[in-house]
Amino acid sequence: MKTAALSLGLGAALLALTPACHIRFNTSSSFMTTGGYRFDRQGDEAQNHQTGELPAGATRFEIDHRFGKVEIQASSDTGNYGWEWELHTWADTKEEAEEFLGLIELRVEPQGETARFELVIPEPSDAKRLRGLDSRLTLRVPDPSQAKVENSFGPTRIEGIQGKVETRCAHGSLELKRLPGEMDVSTSFGNLNGEEVGGGVFRNQHGRVHLNHVSGSVDVSSSFSSMSVHHVDGDAKLRNKHGGLDATHIQGWIDAKTSFSTLKVEGVQGKAELINQHGGIRADDLQGPVTARTSFGSLKLTTAGDKVEVKNQHGSVDLKVLNAAARRVSAETTFGSLDVWMPPETQGWVDARTSFGKVSSFMPIYESEKNGSRHHIQGGHRGADLEITLRNSHGSIRLQEGH
């Protein structure tokens, strides 16, 4: 089928406009001037509304949009398919607002199984007196379908699509719901929320990320806000900066990093690597090997793994090891207390040393050396497979019998 282009304008005199213009302004703010536009939504308003049918046979939908909301909903009701477009413009006079209303068009281009929707607006030099623009596009599409969306300065919401979903959004929230296919999504300066979504890549900047019930592995990143990821049926690679990170019920391994806030993890079945800077770590119900590092915050961790390595600087360590058959336990900190609990039946060899603090152990002690501010002990069970290495500076060490 040859590509056909249907141009949907909102005025009688439709100009040939360049679709590749890039305009940067925020319609939600009270005032902003950029690229020749004075954008404050003041003056007179004009509006129009259009609806249409989807191109026949389309199952992949590509959207290039800006300055407003995009919503895609999948449905099994064939009588409900179609698109809806609402446009508002503001200018100093009603006539100018209506003139700009006619200069903005939504192009719908069928390309085989793909339907492309593109919002085209005038260059700044052609619309110097335009004072506001709000475009809202809604698609009701067949199930299954695929979607690829580019949107800026407005929210995006996608629900019910069974196939792959791609987004490249900016300056707007992104809402994802009941999307079991592959995900490759991003936004910035807005929240990213996903409920019952497939595995894949989730990117945000300067905005919150919340994912719940993910049917696959995830690669998630954000900055300057919180991140929460729950119920992942796979592995989880999580990266945040200057924001809290909370992850629970991860069926595979987890690799989580953040800074300047708290990192909390619970219920990880595989290996756990937890890294923080200038913030605490709280981890519970870890079943695999664990590596945890932070600074300038407390580190509290409970694990059933067979290998544990934790390191802190300028903060306390509170470590509970539930596995009496563990092979290696290593814990280190400075300027804070170091407390380790092991099962009563644990058979291990202990090497613990500190400065400006005391060392104590519930296991037998064979060597104890004090030299000024330094205290070093060795003991436990000779020939045991488990090695327990504990280091501190400016703080005490206590190896205690757990319950």
- Coarse structural class: mainly beta
Q: What is the helix content?
A: under 10%
Estimate the mean pLDDT confidence. 89
Q: Looking at the chains present, what oligomeric state does this protein adopt?
A: single chain
Uncertain stretches of 5 or more adjacent residues: 1-37
Provide the gyration radius in Å. Answer: 29 Å
Beta percentage is over 45%
User: Which geometry do the CA atoms define?
Assistant: elongated
Terminal residue distance: 72 Å
What keyword list fits this structure?
elongated; two-stranded antiparallel sheet; 403 residues; disordered N terminus; 1 helix; mainly beta
In short:
This protein has one helix at residues 94-103; strands spanning 6-9, 32-34, 37-39, 44-52, 60-64, 70-75, 82-91, 105-111, 114-120, 130-142, 146-152, 156-159, 165-170, 174-179, 183-186, 192-203, 209-221, 227-232, 236-239, 245-250, 254-257, 263-268, 272-275, 281-286, 290-293, 299-303, 307-311, 317-321, 328-332, 338-342, 348-355, 359-361, 365-371, 374-380, 386-391, 397-401.
Q: Which helices and strands occur, and which strands form pairs?
A:
Blueprint: E1 6-9, E2 32-34, E3 37-39, E4 44-52, E5 60-64, E6 70-75, E7 82-91, H1 94-103, E8 105-111, E9 114-120, E10 130-142, E11 146-152, E12 156-159, E13 165-170, E14 174-179, E15 183-186, E16 192-203, E17 209-221, E18 227-232, E19 236-239, E20 245-250, E21 254-257, E22 263-268, E23 272-275, E24 281-286, E25 290-293, E26 299-303, E27 307-311, E28 317-321, E29 328-332, E30 338-342, E31 348-355, E32 359-361, E33 365-371, E34 374-380, E35 386-391, E36 397-401
